[in-house]
Amino acid sequence: MKRLISTYIAVLSCMAAAAQETIYPAKVQETPVFLTNATIHIGNGQVVEKGSLAFANGKITAIGNSIQAPAGARVLDLQGKHIYPGIIAPATSLGLTEIEAVRATNDNEEVGEINPSVRALVAYNTDSKVLATIRSAGILLAQVTPEGGLISGSSSVVQLDAWNWEDAAYKADGAIHLYLPSLQPPAANPGRPTPPKDRTAEFLEKTGEVRAFFREAKAYLQENKHAATNLKFEAVRRLFSREQKLFIHADLVKEMLVAVDFAREFGFDVVIVGGADAWLIPDLLKQHQIAVVLVQPHSLPIMQDDDVDQPYKTPAQLQKAGVLFCLGNEGFWQQRNLTYEAGTASTYGLSKEEALSAITLNTARILGIDKTTGSLETGKDANITISAGDLLDMRSSTVTQAFIQGREVSLDNKQKQLYERYKYKYGLK
C-alpha cells in the first residue's frame, strides 16, 4: 500500500512538473547574428530593401545592402520578411495588473492623492502571463506606469523578457505621473439618476492642491539645509532639474491648458498623455515643446459634434503641425493592438513609416531612451522584431522572431498553448 501511494505521488509530481510553463528569459547573446535578404524598416522613415543587419553583444554593428556576415555569425536568411525596431508601449499598467476582476492581482495604484515617491518599477511582475502575449505582437519594451490619485508616482521603462524587476529595468524612474480630474460630463444613465456634480469646482480644487504642492516642493528644494527630510518633495527634485519628465494625463483642451501652465510656471518638461483634443491646439503644444502620447486611437471622439473618425485623423494633424507624438493604449493586455492602431493612422494621413515611428522612435524620444533604442542604427541595442508580413496590417502581420538586446526571446504564450491544446482535442492538428 505504501509503495502504491508513493507511486501515485510520484506520478502526480511528474504531471505537475510537465504542466509547468517552459517560457523563460533568454540567455545573454554569445554568438553574432546576421539577418539578411529582408526589408529593413529603420524606424526613422528610411527603408532598406533586400538589406542585411548584423548585431553582436546585444548591439547593432552594421546595417545596409553590402555588409558581410561577421566571422562565426549565425546567419538567418529571412527570404523577404520584414525587420522592424522593437515596438514600445508607453503609459501602461502592463505587469502591474494580471486579472482586473481579482483585486489581489492588481498592484497599479496606491492609497492617497499625492504619492510622487511611489515607484511602479518595484511592483512590476516579470512572471505575468500577459507579457508573453504582448511580446508575440512584437512589443518588446513598455513604460510601466502607476495610477490613482493626483500624483501617482514614477514610471519606468522595462524590457519584457526578464527574471525580476531589476533585470527588466531599462530606464528607471524617468517620469512622474499627474492625473488631472476630468472635466468631461458623465454619460447620462436614465435608469440610475445621480445628483449633478460640479466638475469645474472639483477640477479647480484639485489642480490647486497640485500647484500648491509643487510650489512648496520648489521652496523646500531651494533650501540648503532641512530640519527634516520630506520624501515627497525629494521625489520631485529631478522634475525641477528637468532630468525627469512630468506626464500629465489630460484629454480636453481646458485640461491641457493647465498642463501648459505647469510647464510655464515650474519649467517642467511636460508630456500630455491622452490628448484626445490635442488636434485643436497643436501650435500651442509646439510652442511650448510639449509632446503627446495619444491614448486609445481606436475609439470614438470625446465630443458628439466631432467627426466620428477624428481619433484616426489626429496623428496626421499633429505630424503636420510638427508636434512630437506617439501612440499608446490604456490598460495592459490592450497593448497587443498597438501596431494595428498605427496601421489605422497610416490610412488617415500618415505614411507607413511615419506610423511606424509613432510606435518606435517617437516613443523612445518621449521616454528619453532614443540614444539606445527606437530605431535600427549602428550602436543601438538590438531590439528587433521580424514579421512575415506588414507588421501594421492585421491581415498579414505574423511575428516570427524577436530579439531584446540581442537575445532571441520566446514568442510562445499561454494563448498559443491553449490553441494547440484544443486543436489536438478536436483532431485539428
Q: Tell me what the CATH architecture of the domain at 85-187 and 196-374 is.
A: Alpha-Beta Barrel
> How would you sum up the major sheet?
8 strands, mixed
Instruction: Say which CATH homologous superfamily of the domain at 85-187 and 196-374 is assigned.
Output: Metal-dependent hydrolases
Q: Give me the number of helical elements.
A: 13
Overall structural class, as computed from helix and strand content, comes to alpha/beta
User: How many runs of DSSP E, i.e. beta strands?
Assistant: 16
Order of secondary-structure elements: HEEEEEEHEEHEHHHEHEHEHEHHHEEEH
- Mean of all residue-level pLDDT scores: 91
C-alpha geometry: globular
Whole-number radius of gyration? 24 Å
CATH class assignment of the domain at 85-187 and 196-374:
Alpha Beta
Instruction: Report the end-to-end length measured between terminal Cα atoms.
Output: 41 Å
pLDDT < 50 stretches: 1-20
Pfam family, one: Amidohydro_1
Signal peptide: 1-19
GO molecular function, one term: hydrolase activity, acting on carbon-nitrogen (but not peptide) bonds
Domain Amidohydrolase-related: 339-408
Description of the structure:
The protein is 30% helix and 23% strand. The chain has a domain at 85-187 and 196-374: Alpha-Beta Barrel (TIM Barrel), CATH 3.20.20.140. The protein starts with a helix and ends with a helix. The protein has 429 residues and is an alpha/beta fold. GO terms for molecular function: hydrolase activity, acting on carbon-nitrogen (but not peptide) bonds. Pfam families: Amidohydro_1. Keywords: Hydrolase, Signal.
